[in-house]
Amino acid sequence: MDWLTLIVFFGVLQAAFLGTLLLFKSNKRHAPIFLALLLFIEAIGLNEQSLYYSGLIYNYPQILGVSYPLSVLRPLLIFGFAQAYFSGLPSLKKSHLLHLLPFAIYLLLFAPLIFSSNAEKITYLNDIKGGVWSDTTQGILFFLFNNLIYLCYYIKAWKLLKKLTPNIKLDKSSQSKWVAYLISFFLAFYLFKLLLYILNGFHLLSSVSFGTIVMLVSSFTVQLIAWFLLANAKWPSFNPVVPADSEEIERLITALETEKAFLDDEITIKKLALLSKIKQDRLTELIRLHYKDTFKETINKLRIKEAKSLIQNESKDKSIYLLGIALDSGFNNKVTFYRAFKKHEGVSPSEYVKGLKASS
């Protein structure tokens, strides 16, 4: 067994393991389910490719063809993963079943191969190696149709990412950025694979070299997903980034600004969730969407705004007690107050007071 077979075999096992893990931890959320199905398809495809390019497929011809109809689901699952995570899936309609039409067509086309005898599959393998099928009109049409499907879904996924780029950049947890990078990587990998197909079609790249590169990159993709899922101390939530509605925003503003929850020096996202009657994960997302910042920074900004208002009201008097201002604004100590004030205003509270007195 050579090094490539070992790498691919490890990738197959890891993809199957991660897919199973995602399904068990999905909590019925769509995004991890789509990613799990994608990993299962990668495992099946990698396994079949490995057997084919190593020549072991002749010993196990019965599995030949299984990955062909499944491969056309890959771009659909990637787009579904992106939409489920970034904007949520729309209500299911009969028209949505049309997305499965390419898979149904491929299944019908390859059913004779999948259910053919081992002897017939070996004949098919010999035809492929001889370049018989790929040079036919059927082979060319299959290549064009397959890539058209990939392009359609990848372009849709890319447009979705581009539209949501401002929100993705604000995600301090890095989860949204990782999802965006993964989808971008799939798109780049597809374009790279398309280039390899063209080079192979013009006999500028051997089939063995083509297969080796594709298998290595596919294995790397699995490792990339594994690194993100297993390297984090906390399992990613994959909660969808759903746009805020007016009722949610109104509850958030009421709790934070009208009732001034930020004045509580022990306010936490959990406490605010109870006050606003919004789930904690959703509340974090709403703050990011509405205030364009994290919970901590939003609280500090509101406290600084309150502190400035108190300073302006008290500046009419000769003495201003800054520690009192800090405590009345929600800060629990002078150091934190000074640091936050300097960060957001560019000057210390003392300098701000001097500036007010000088201008009055």
Description:
By secondary structure, the protein is mainly α. It has two domains: 3-231, Rhopdopsin 7-helix transmembrane proteins, CATH 1.20.1070; 246-359, Homeodomain-like (Arc Repressor Mutant, subunit A, Orthogonal Bundle), CATH 1.10.10. 72% of the residues lie in helices and 0% in strands. The chain contains 17 helices and no strands. The chain has helices at 3-24, 30-54, 67-71, 73-86, 101-114, 118-129, 137-163, 165-169, 175-201, 207-231, 246-258, 269-276, 280-291, 295-314, 322-328, 334-345, 349-359. The longest helix is centred in the middle third of the chain and has 27 residues, at 137-163. It is elongated.
Q: Which key terms come to mind for this protein?
A:
360 residues, mainly alpha, Rhopdopsin 7-helix transmembrane proteins, Arc Repressor Mutant, subunit A, 2 domains, 0% strand
TL;DR?
The protein has 17 helices and no strands. The chain is mainly alpha-helical. The longest helix has 27 residues, at 137-163.
Strand content: under 5%
Question: Mind telling me the C-alpha Rg?
Answer: 28 Å
Number of separate domains: 2
Span between termini = 83 Å
Give the arrangement of secondary structure elements:
Elements: H1 3-24, H2 30-54, H3 67-71, H4 73-86, H5 101-114, H6 118-129, H7 137-163, H8 165-169, H9 175-201, H10 207-231, H11 246-258, H12 269-276, H13 280-291, H14 295-314, H15 322-328, H16 334-345, H17 349-359
Helix pairs in contact: 1-2, 1-10, 2-4, 2-10, 4-7, 4-9, 7-9, 9-10, 14-15
